[in-house]
Write a structure and sequence with these properties.
This protein is α/β, with parallel strands linked by helices and about 250 residues long. It has one domain (about 5-250): Divalent-metal-dependent TIM barrel enzymes (TIM Barrel, Alpha-Beta Barrel). Helices cover about 40% and strands about 20% of the residues. It has 8 helices and 10 strands. It has helices at about 20-25, 45-60, 80-90, 110-130, 145-155, 175-185, 205-215, 235-250, and strands spanning about 5-10, 30-35, 60-70, 95-100, 130-135, 160-165, 185-190, 195, 200, 220-225. The strands form 2 sheets. It has an 8-stranded parallel β-barrel, surrounded by 6 helices. Strands 8-9 form a two-stranded antiparallel sheet. Strand 1 (about 5-10), helix 1 and strand 2 (about 30-35) form a beta-alpha-beta unit. Helix 1 packs parallel to helix 2, helix 5 (about 145-155) runs parallel beside helix 6 and helix 7 crosses helix 8. It starts with a strand and ends with a helix.
């Protein structure tokens, strides 16, 4: 049975304070948030993270995930523990990571093996710490193609390693749907937006496409709105309502 949780990625509003974002999340009827480590929740700011946790509780919002910019294969593995500590302070066991620094076709055989070795080492850390590492589905990384992402997931075969999914604004609906369907068994959270190339558009205008995308996933899923069509926090209620309608239609 399908069940959705609705939330927001805080990177949508980098210019707004955590207080402003949490008020907007609550007003829009969303239940969770993914804090980004770049602006709102730096992993070294333990006081700030504790404060965020208190603010969440006061607003009745839980942390679905910690959006890091840790890059497997280039960020030192020793830094991962700090991000895990931060995630736990925020009350989540899901961390978003990036995998590599270029598209899979640009990797040599040796570079690929080194990247996979880094992923295996990170998986051991995640297992020991009781968290799940989920990879950003994005260009400029190993997971840019569905085939490469699936190859990594099958190589690791770990419940501590998974995927995010989001549509690629430079691909067709059919291409994006094929990626979603193939990686659905490994996907934890979904970033939701409507872009056509670099142009941001209202989510409601992509309702048909998003119903197809959500049809690829079963079970419980967390849907995180990411970026507004006009980059304004005032648009969050409208986008949240569009997301709820799309999700209801996909059940």
């Amino acid at each position: 049975m399908k069940r959705y949780r609705f939330g927001l990625a805080s990177v949508s509003f980098r210019k707004n304070t955590p207080e402003e974002i949490l008020r907007a999340v609550r007003a829009a009827g969303l239940s969770c948030i993914e804090w980004g480590s770049d602006v709102h929740a730096p992993c070294a700011d333990r006081e700030g993270l504790a404060r965020l946790a208190r603010l969440q509780e006061a607003c009745g919002v839980r942390c679905s995930s910690y959006g890091t910019y840790f890059r497997l294969g280039s960020s030192p593995l020793a830094e991962l523990d700090g991000y895990i500590d931060a995630a736990k302070l925020l009350g989540t066991d899901v961390l978003r990571l990036w995998c590599g620094e270029k598209n899979p076709e640009a990797y040599t055989a040796g570079e690929k093996e080194a990247l996979f070795s880094a992923c295996r080492a990170a998986e051991k850390t995640a297992r020991a710490r009781g968290v799940r590492l989920c990879l950003e589905c994005h260009g400029g990384s190993w997971t840019h193609t569905k085939e490469a992402a699936l190859e990594l997931m099958e190589a690791l075969q770990s419940d501590r390693f998974g995927m995010y999914w989001q549509p690629d604004p430079f691909r067709t609906v059919a291409e994006n749907k094929a990626y979603a369907a193939l990686l659905a068994p490994y996907t934890a959270h979904i970033h939701v937006f409507n872009w056509e190339g670099k142009t941001h558009r209202p989510l409601a205008a992509a309702a048909s496409a998003w119903r197809e995308y959500l049809g690829c996933f079963s079970g419980e899923r967390t849907l995180l709105l990411e970026f507004m069509p006009d980059d304004k926090i005032e648009s969050l209620p409208t986008e949240a309502e569009a997301l709820r309608r799309i999700a209801e239609d996909s059940l």
